[in-house]
Amino acid sequence: MSETRRNWLLSAPGLVLFGVLLFVPLVMTFILSLNSFDFYGGIKPDIGPGNYFAVLGDGYYYTIFGRTFAIALVTTVICVLIGVPVAWFMLKMTPFWRSIMVLVVIGPLLISVVVRTLGWAIILGNKGIVNDALIHLGLIERPIKMMFTSGGIVVALVHVMVPFMVLAVWAALQRADPAAERAAESLGAGTVTIFRRVVVPQALPGILSGSLIVFSMSASAFATPAIIGGRRAKVIATTVYDEFMGTLNWPLGAAIAMLLLVSVVVVMLAWNRLVERRVEKVIG
Amino acid sequence: MAFLELHGLTKRYGTITAVDSMTLNVEKNSFVSLLGPSGCGKTTTLQMVAGFETPTEGRILLNGRDLSAIPARERGLGIVFQSYALFMHMTVAENVAFGLEMRKVGKAERARRVAAALDLVHLSHLADRYPRAMSGGQRQRVALARALVIEPELLLLDEPLSNLDAKLREEMQLELRRIQREAGVTTLMVTHDQSEALAMSDRVVVMERGHLRQEDAPFEVYEQPGSLFVSNFLGKSNVYDARLIAADATGSRLVVAGREIAGPAGVTLPPGDVALVLRPERVEVVAPDAALIEGRVIERIFFGNQWLLRAGTPFGEMLISRRNSGRAEAAVGDRIGLGWEAHHIRVLPREEARA
Ligand SMILES: Nc1ncnc2c1ncn2[C@@H]1O[C@H](COP(=O)(O)OP(=O)(O)OP(=O)(O)O)[C@@H](O)[C@H]1O
Ligand SMILES: [Mg+2]
């Protein structure tokens, strides 16, 4: 048996699983998105790009797409800003504290997103902890609106996504030479300079892969925007849900879902191309 | 007053004493090696001088200035790390310029000094390369240029050549020594390679389990080791239990394995149990009638420029090293006569055997 044939054979179970679980539903969704729909007759099995024109021709959807990607982008940026220093501090800790920190960072992943987000709903609500505290301190008079806003979604998403960023950056920093920081120190660099000039570049591969994970997961997140954003701060995923479950216009929902998929893939590929060139030159 | 002074320098990690009351003077512009087996505290000593470890006790004086209150980044020392610790995301020139940037040296001046430093290590043609695309020896030179460009008062090298293969290591030994001379910088190097320490240094400091055992010029440490440990660590040694029965300014008498032999002059030890040390290269293969003892060759190893014979003798096993003079050497099983001159024997205090 030739080498290639054996390789194909060995990966066959994986490929079959992949095909059945990912490819088939995707193709079916795509076909669904080409069907048409009317309120009295339901889904009609004709094929045409009508749904796509409907979405792309309607400013309402542009707002939702814009909001979704803005939320994903801001979430990613905040995750980088939090994740890189946290990963660096974790690396500097004694093994005992480091294992505790790993638990603290990974811990949230062990709890359902729904439960965590409901926790945020309690904290961010008009009668939530944050508003109550600020009012009692006399800093504000009326509660700040945080529930059902994009800002609230970002806060809750950051909480969900930060572990992924920390882990990605941590993995990158662990591969770097710890003596490089000492070298910079011996050459006269202070902590901030070391962080900026040595640690961040070392963390770059982790920041890049972490950003891809966080961005794509934030852009397609459902539970968090559904609970925090509700009907008022709608994102693509919740819109798709509403089309399917509310209006029952499955073809339109499928078209929106396909557009979400395509735009996330395009953003990811572009990002990858952009940074890979730079990283490859330097880190190889 | 010496340029760098260590006074009773001690470092304890919990119950482990990594460095134990180390006192050492390093003269300006000299090249000093800290030599010792793994775990003897060499790196720890260097890290304390660099400022990355805080001494438990003792003081470090550089040019009369107490370093203990000065953080690592203000000590202004040039350090070459064992892993080189280059900034992989910067080009060679950017790496070298880093220390100057931190010192706020102007752009033109910076470029001039980076060029000079790269010239010193013969790397001018690779200024725009990234370290990943360089060989071990080239990276080593970059690390050296980066440390030297800030014109440090003191250069610290932690096993700078241990990542290089044997041939390159020998080249770099000479190269490093040349660069050190040209830069005229006082240098403290850590190594566990005795030939490297002997070849490169003005002074060799032999350490064992946190203690300074001997500090001397290379020739002196080799020829006049102060203890069995130093003698065994530097080069090969034949060591036999002996009894000193007489010693004065003109010579001494020793008893080894029931035979009385002549020993060197000037032994200051009191008569009694001693250790007798004889270097393999000081033992001659001689005609049986001129021999002090006889031996039978057990093993013969060829090194190219020399032979190493292992022979069974009345004293015990003896290593004999012979320059390759183009003739076939005694073969395994041959009986040979062995001789040496009395002044080539070293008489040292007995020590407990150490692992
Ligand atoms: N951070 C630390 N915590 C506890 N013990 C340490 C620490 N650093 C070093 N030691 C111990 O101190 C002793 C000296 O270590 P050091 O690194 O100075 O040895 P070395 O002479 O450089 O050895 P090598 O040739 O292997 O590099 C060793 O026994 C080591 O285990
Ligand atoms: Mg060491």
UniProtKB/TrEMBL annotation, chain A:
One of its GO terms (cellular component) is plasma membrane. The chain crosses the membrane at residues 12-32, 69-91, 100-124, 144-173, 206-228, 248-271. Keywords: Cell membrane, Membrane, Transmembrane, Transmembrane helix, Transport. Residues 65-271 form the ABC transmembrane type-1 domain. InterPro entries: MetI-like, MetI-like_sf. It is a multi-pass membrane protein. Its main location: membrane. The keyword Nucleotide-binding does not apply. The keyword Membrane applies. Coiled coil: none annotated. Pfam families: BPD_transp_1. It is found in: Cell membrane. One of its GO terms (biological process) is transmembrane transport. It comes from the Bacteria. Belongs to the binding-protein-dependent transport system permease family. CysTW subfamily. This is ABC transporter permease. It comes from Paenirhodobacter enshiensis.
From TrEMBL, chain B:
Residues 4-234 form the ABC transporter domain. It comes from the Bacteria. One of its GO terms (biological process) is quaternary ammonium group transport. Pfam families: ABC_tran (PF00005), TOBE_2 (PF08402). GO terms for molecular function: ATP binding; ATP hydrolysis activity; transmembrane transporter activity. Keywords: ATP-binding, Nucleotide-binding, Transport. One of its GO terms (cellular component) is ATP-binding cassette (ABC) transporter complex. This is Spermidine/putrescine ABC transporter ATPase. It comes from Paenirhodobacter enshiensis.
